[in-house]
Amino acid sequence: MKQQLSNILALAVITMLASCSSGLAPVATDAVVPTVVTEQTEFDTDDPAIWIHPTDPSQSLIIGTDKEVGGGLYVYDLDGKIVNKVTGLERPNNVDIAYGLDINGKKTDVAITTERNAHKIRVYSLPDLKPVDNGGIAVFEGEQGEGERDGMGISIYTKKDAAQNTIYAIVGRKTGPSGSYLWQYKLTAGADGIVKGEVVRKFGTYSGKKEIEAIAVDNELGYVYYSDETVGVRKYYADPAKHDDTELAFFAQHDVKSDHEGIAIYKTSDSTGYILLSNQQNNSFVVYPREGSNGQPNRYEKLADIPVSAVECDGAEATSFNLGGKFPKGMLVAMSNGKVFHYYDWNLIQARIDKGEGK
């Protein structure tokens, strides 16, 4: 009861803030209501990731960034309670999860976040949230322009083969040159147990309009998507071994009110599902078929535009794992103004997709 009351009060405050924000659309009266609203961070939430527990999905965790100098990573249970945190970072921005990184022969799950003002990515073991990076991995070394070393977006690509998983971090920044805006790092641990990164690729068209922050990788299909804010979503191969930096698709140019933000992928099979894109200034999510439209894997037509209660959502993540309890078909997690994250029971989202809402 106490958690429910806290969630209701938090949602009321968020709705009030949305109504009062200059130039921001208020939360729609028919918006999907979150199943859970998390406890607040100290500063400003930005991006979530979902860690699936290896033996009991009901014990899975949400890891979210608190984006400010002195902020950090917050770990939540499925009831939205803060169960762990690390703070004192130099403006952590986005976060993602890697499973089974080999550290001294032990397969270790890790959370990886960009530390924007320190020009690093940080790596923490899960679920204990202990650093395994000796203070961080420098990114965008050698870049000289203002903001060109400020790491923002991050997503993990895991290449699976018979011998072992090879894990790559694809990192975006505040600004950079078109064609090499994103840098891809191969992550490995040395004999000392410290995780290091090696640049293996630089790619990515950039419009120059605003910035690239939201990045999402589809491991099974082998693609990376990123939001070129105010312009659209771009798609590339995720595997650097392909030696192919051709832009495969550029979509969502006309489906978003202003900023294209967080990207989440919900998987209904190894090859089907949905791509959800935060329509930030509209307080909604635009939905596309993961497998592409009309049998064309690089064509994306809007399936729905779903109003949510999350205000000005920057980052999002989704899973189709049965997490038990409130989330039998998984969840959508969305950052919201008010220093919180929203958890949405996937059944609520699916019902709106089935209706073709906002199409």
Automatic annotation (TrEMBL):
Coiled coil: none annotated. Residues 1-25 form the signal peptide. Residues 17-353 form the BPP domain. Keywords: Signal. Gene3D superfamilies: TolB, C-terminal domain (2.120.10.30). Pfam families: Phytase. This is Phytase. The lineage of its organism: Bacteria, Pseudomonadati, Bacteroidota, Sphingobacteriia, Sphingobacteriales.
